[in-house]
Design goal:
Largest sheet: 6 strands, mixed
Mean pLDDT: 91
Strand order of the largest sheet: 10-11-9-12-13-14
Shape: elongated
Low-confidence stretches: none
Number of helices: 9
CATH class of the largest domain: Alpha Beta
Bound molecules: guanosine-5'-triphosphate, magnesium ion
Length: 435
């Protein structure tokens, strides 16, 4: 099955929890803190595997979850990092952040990889919190949650030449003639239902051709198979319009060309910049010569190659010229810079430290990635952990913000599932509450 679009939810691994522990040795009644840190959670990494041709392996996975780091232990034993999760994708896979529709990465080279979702760091053990003023901390952290992300993956096949045209004009026949591919060929429309790829050898050179399902007028509004396959022509260096000069089904080659060009322009403005040629097929049929002359007259600037699959006339010329054309194009840019996530500012924008809203019952609801992370990493079973939680909130400016919103001592504050009373004393930072 050919699958070129999938949606997924990724949950990178959580960091292992830190440990609260004190050294226990004979004759040492009050050993120092020795709780180790947790290990890092697994990243979710996408890696290009040239052997893959579709995204079908990901089609039925709704959620991909990576492993947790292991917990820290006493005697300063650190947890180990989880093994990263590597997901293989075909060449030409674009990964989008589903919420913003911005591109996270475009994976085009064999072996290329990218961390799509980052694993959480390990929670710190109590040993890590030792300071001069606090030589024996009785708290540690839970591991940081792994990054959660909804993504959309899109495969746009990698090929040098894209064959586009109406159904049954001879696209697959041409591909079969010139390459190692063996596509289905038949005299009914929409024989080809997904792109076929072939490698064409020309002397010591080689280039690749993608044969796409046929297009009809209105394809951009979903008629026929629609235009969803046109995305596979996006990465090509050259577009080869395949036009049936036999035109026996009451067709008009000039009209056919206009319709296809129009559908392509509706799909993307990138097609205008691509080099294009015309392959005029079925030259063995009756009216082909006359149609060809009329076509050339209508488009004097287009390079038109008449061929017949029956006697293979003209085929060599197209292949040689396509090879030269492909070699003359260095780069095909299919995305603009502003379609990509700027990884530096994006993270910054996403990580709002906190936000406070007052609900109709007068409860102040504090949310945001940073405070929620702090909440999830705090062990509320440890008194000192709770105190630190309060100090950290204060440090982030939550207290000041609450005060500026009119919060008074005794008002209810909520962070995720944690409800507590606001204690409006500048010098005291203990929050009392329950989870
Ligand atoms: N006489 C003649 N028939 C041809 C030639 N090229 C292709 N055909 C025939 O045209 C019909 C359609 O050919 P395909 O190669 O399947 O056409 P296609 O453009 O791939 O069609 P779709 O996959 O449906 O879009 C088949 O019956 C072919 O045998 C040619 O040069 N001369
Ligand atoms: Mg076909």
């Amino acid at each position: 099955m050919f699958v070129d679009e999938v949606n997924l939810k990724l949950i990178a691994g959580k960091g292992g929890d830190g440990c609260t522990s004190f050294r226990r040795e004979k004759y040492v009644p009050m050993g120092g803190p020795d709780g180790g840190n947790g290990g890092k959670g697994a990243d979710i990494i996408f890696k290009v595997d040239k052997g893959l041709k579709t995204l079908v392996d990901l089609k039925f996975k709704k959620i991909i979850k990576a492993d947790k780091g292991t917990n820290g232990k006493g005697s300063n034993r650190f947890g180990s990092n989880a093994d990263n999760l590597i997901i293989k994708v075909p060449e030409g896979t674009t990964v989008y952040d589903k919420n913003t529709n911005l591109i996270i990465c475009d994976l085009v080279n064999d072996g290329q990889e990218f961390i799509i979702a980052h694993g959480g760091r390990g929670g710190r053990g109590n040993k890590a919190f030792v300071t001069d003023s606090e030589p024996a901390p009785k708290f540690s952290e839970y591991g940081e949650p792994g990054e959660e992300l909804e993504i959309h993956c899109e495969l746009k096949v990698m090929a040098d030449v894209g064959l586009v045209g109406m159904p049954s004009v001879g696209k697959s026949t041409f591909l079969k003639l010139v390459s190692n591919a063996n596509p289905k060929i038949a005299d009914y429309h929409f024989t080809t239902l997904s792109p076929n790829l072939g490698v064409v050898k020309v002397g010591s050179d080689a280039f690749t051709i993608a044969d796409l399902p046929g297009l009809i007028e209105g394809a951009s509004t979903g008629l026929g198979l629609g235009i969803k396959f046109l995305k596979h022509a996006m990465r090509t260096k050259v577009i080869a319009h395949v036009i049936d000069m036999g035109a026996f089904e009451g067709r008009n080659p000039i009209e056919d060309y206009e319709i296809i060009k129009n559908e392509m322009d509706q799909y993307s403005n990138k097609f205008k910049d691509k080099k294009a040629i015309v392959i005029a097929t079925k030259m063995d049929l009756e009216n082909a010569e006359a149609n060809l002359e009329a076509f050339k007259k209508a488009y004097p600037d287009l390079k038109v190659y008449p061929i017949s699959a029956l006697d293979e006339s003209g085929v060599k010329e197209v292949v040689n010229d396509l090879n030269e054309l492909v070699k003359s194009v260095n780069e095909t840019k299919i995305y603009d810079e502003n379609e990509f996530i700027d990884h530096v500012t994006y993270e910054y924008q996403k990580e709002v430290p906190f936000k406070i809203e007052k609900d109709p019952e007068g409860v102040y609801i504090v949310s945001g990635k940073e405070v929620e992370k702090l909440f999830l990493m705090t062990k509320f079973t440890e008194e000192e952990g709770v105190l630190r939680f309060g100090r950290r909130l204060k440090g982030m400016g939550v207290d000041d913000c609450l005060r500026s919103m009119g919060a008074k001592a005794g008002d209810t504050i909520q962070i995720m599932d944690y409800v507590f009373e606001f204690n409006d004393e500048e010098d005291k930072s203990d929050y009392e509450g329950e989870v």
